[in-house]
Specification:
It is a single chain. The protein contains two helices and no strands. The protein has 60 residues and is mainly α. Helix 1 packs antiparallel against helix 2.
Amino acid sequence: MRMITGAILLLAAEQAFAHAYLVGFPHQAFVSQVLTPGSLLLGVIGLVFLIWGLITDHRK
């Protein structure tokens, strides 16, 4: 379950990063200030969950 959560968070981080550069001129600066750090945070948390799941989840 942790690996699935990590993968979903990594996908959300990628989408936030992509949307940060797709927004047009009037709101581009504000959106980049919000979505770029947000995507970084989601990416780090997603990697932590993914690595945690790889270490602790065992097949039976």
